[in-house]
Amino acid sequence: KQQLSLAKLCIVIVALTCCVSSSSASTRCQWALKLLAGVGAPQSHNNVVAMIGWMQGEGSPCRNNPLDTTEKWTGATNCNSVGVKNYRNEAEGVVATVATMRNGYYTSILNHLHASSPPTTTASAIASSPWGTHDAVSATQYCVSNYNACCQH
């Protein structure tokens, strides 16, 4: 249990370190880089495209939660009826999303991110995961062709 607690603490420290310096709302690409740092995955072009494609597929209206996680967090409020959260700030949104991704249900996604797999390969893992972003592949294909538009959103 001590190792798990230490691992969670490290996730929080990494995610907060990457996010606290941001003075304004991040673009999708900036948010992707922060999330990749939080999960310890390479900040490669393949991974950024996979992440912004995932965000494109979610199309989230929720605050500080472009991947629509339902992770409970102090101060978080419900964004919709299924429990997707609004987070108070970007740092908490990143940390909550990292916690979700590390909860044991998303090993395939993490493995593809750590391998810096082609974006549509990672998107296939996302689409077949319990996360529920079923159009992750088509959204990622769109972002491959429209990188700047997806990135700067």
Highlighted features:
153 residues, mainly alpha, two-stranded antiparallel ribbon, 8 helices, 2 strands, disordered N terminus
Question: Would you give an account of this structure?
Answer:
Residues 1-6 and 15-23 have low confidence and may be disordered. By secondary structure, the chain is mainly alpha-helical. The protein has a two-stranded antiparallel sheet with strand order 1-2. β1 (77-78) and β2 (85-86) form a beta hairpin. The chain has helices at 2-20, 28-39, 45-58, 90-101, 107-114, 119-127, 136-145, 147-152, and strands at residues 77-78, 85-86. It has eight helices and two strands. α1 runs antiparallel to α4 (90-101). 59% of the residues lie in helices and 3% in strands.
